[in-house]
Amino acid sequence: ALHCATACFANSAKFIELVGAQFKTHEAQTFRTEVGDAHPLIAGYGGFSSWDETYVHHRHNDDRSVVEYRVQGIQAEGRQREPWSWVRQHGQGRVFYTAWGHDQRTWRHPGFQNLVERGIRWACGSDLDGVERFPTREAFVLPPATAQRNDCQPFEYIEVGAKIPNYQPGSITSLTTMQQPLS
Q: Which of 56, 107, 161, 178 has the most CB atoms lying inside 10 A of its own CB?
């Protein structure tokens, strides 16, 4: 189960028990997860960083193993980390859930694709040995910066008014100027 599955069938206690929790609220930001309980599903997986909705869940089913936590953004019930991806047995079946997956920013990320492949294989009872390792806990090494050039002309802008809406992240008003082409 992915992302908004925990918001489905809100009046079904059996579905909430099956999937492992119920969606409560969210904000959104870029964040990174950390690996949780030791489990074969996450052997060789180190988490990743992406923009997504910061889901908070309630009505948690304690009969599960949390394999990934979100530690940034809003938390619920005084927790320091929000359960983010988990697995559980249900009868003779297996359930995998991750809160990742709002849009293409996450869906295109190799870390998300790796996690979902792991979850599908585990839920189907397939061998996880064929899944590529994704140990991304190493620090990102920045490439060397180039010297700032002083021979460039400043950008020129034109007033466009409300003809072309240009909303900036976090702003409720539109910009009314646009950069002119460079040549």
A: 56
